[in-house]
Write a structure and sequence with these properties.
The chain has one domain: Tachylectin-2, Chain A (5 Propeller). The protein is mainly β and about 375 residues long. The model is unreliable at about 1-15 and about 80-90 (pLDDT under 50). It is built from two helices and 24 strands. The chain is about 5% helix and about 40% strand. Strands 12, 13, 14, 15, 16 and 17 form a six-stranded antiparallel beta sheet that branches. A five-stranded mixed beta sheet has the order 2-6-5-4-3, with no helix packed on it. The longest helix has 11 residues, at about 10-20. The two termini are about 25 Å apart. A hairpin with a 4-residue loop joins strand 18 and strand 19. InterPro entries: DUF4185. This is DUF4185 domain-containing protein. Pfam families: DUF4185.
Length: about 375
């Protein structure tokens, strides 16, 4: 078991220790980010974890990063950022097809040189360029009859910073998930400076309700290191995902959902703190929602559970500790692959390890 030491400020180290101990740094008042209830995994089950190996593409030699999964048209795909050897740069956002082998994916939208093309296209009319990033999380299916999906993303101006979080329509064109429309002025809905970056932490189509949920980090205008770590959520009915006016925002357990966009950013209105990017799934075997995540500032893979998609979330259970690749390797971004075992008895999880995706399988007893 090995961890990596990073030259981070003491306040961040202290925050990580608090997070692992189940505490946060609330500055008084109601703190809805505190763990609530029991973790179903630790309370009712034991588990074993198996390391499976590296996830690679069967038609590309590119390195991989992130790889959040989502379903469309009866098939599962993931969204990696990519950087092929010898290519000094990175395709900031791409799409690949998952297979029955957790270690093999099939890259889609390849160009003539065998490199993947940008999944969420940049738009020069909006001042975007090829070095812009579109970091986001899961592809969610919103209409199975028309094979229509949605993807949440965060527009990253690279040198100029984050612009805002948005939603795009995804349709199957010649069998390949393709972004056909980006919504909002300048291609996004939620300004990153003044509103949460909805979808940048996680996005989830709840199979047990009509809703799509999205979680995002605090507005960038919040500079206090404690408050900047809070995570907020919104939801919308899947059939209305492309209508901004139909979204609801979580104002905390005491006030619940409101159509009024959130304007108060505190521990009361937040749902998580310092979780890092991850993925939410419903687990049929455990009969609960499971949030897969890593870190921060550790190499541990954590699972936490909740009775509802909006929480409240339990404390974490550590299911694995990764060994960083390289001297300064970092591990992050927990990803779930529930399609590999629909019963939920086991859950395949992948995570990024220094631009490599590693895979483990957790089996519940």
């Amino acid at each position: 078991m090995q961890t990596t030491t990073f030259p981070v400020p003491f306040c961040q180290i202290f925050a990580a220790l608090l997070l692992q101990s189940g505490l946060t740094c609330s500055q008084g008042g109601i703190d809805n980010t505190q763990p609530a209830g029991v973790n179903v995994i630790s309370h009712d089950h034991t588990f074993t974890t198996e390391y499976l190996g590296l996830q690679l593409a069967d038609n590309s030699a590119s390195h991989r990063d992130l790889g959040f999964t989502g379903q469309l048209g009866g098939k599962w795909g993931n969204r990696p950022g990519r950087g092929p050897p010898g290519f000094h740069g990175m395709v900031r956002d791409a799409i690949s097809l998952c297979t029955d082998d957790p270690l093999i994916v099939h890259d889609l939208q390849l160009d003539a040189k065998g490199r993947q093309q940008q999944f969420i296209p940049f738009n020069e009319d909006w001042g975007e360029a090829s070095d812009f990033g579109f970091g986001g999380t899961s592809l969610v299916e919103v209409d199975s009859e028309t094979n229509t999906g949605a993807v949440f993303y965060l527009v990253n101006g690279n040198k100029t910073g984050y612009r805002g979080a948005g939603v795009a329509k995804v349709q199957l064109l010649d069998g390949t998930p393709t972004v056909t429309h980006r919504f909002g002025y300048q291609g996004y809905w939620w300004n990153a400076n003044s509103t949460p970056r909805y979808g940048d932490v996680a996005a989830f189509r709840d199979p047990r309700s009509e809703y799509v949920y999205a979680w995002g980090g605090a507005p960038m205008d919040i500079k206090n290191w404690i408050n900047s770590g809070y995570i907020y959520q919104c939801r919308v009915k899947a059939a209305e995902v492309f209508e901004l006016s139909r979204y609801e925002y979580w104002w905390g357990r005491q006030k619940g959902w409101k159509s009024e966009p959130l304007t108060t950013f505190t521990a009361e209105t937040a749902v998580l703190w310092m979780s890092g990017q991850g993925q939410v799934v419903w687990n049929e075997y455990l009969k609960c929602y499971v949030f897969v995540r890593l870190g921060p500032w550790t190499n541990h893979v954590f699972l936490r559970t909740a009775p509802l998609a909006e929480g409240p979330w339990s404390g974490d259970v550590k299911v694995f500790t990764a060994t960083p690749i390289g001297q300064d390797g970092m591990t992050y971004a927990g990803v779930a692959h529930p399609y590999l075992d629909p019963s939920g008895r086991s859950l395949v999880i992948s995570y990024t390890n220094n631009n490599n995706i590693e895979v483990i399988r957790v089996t519940f007893d």
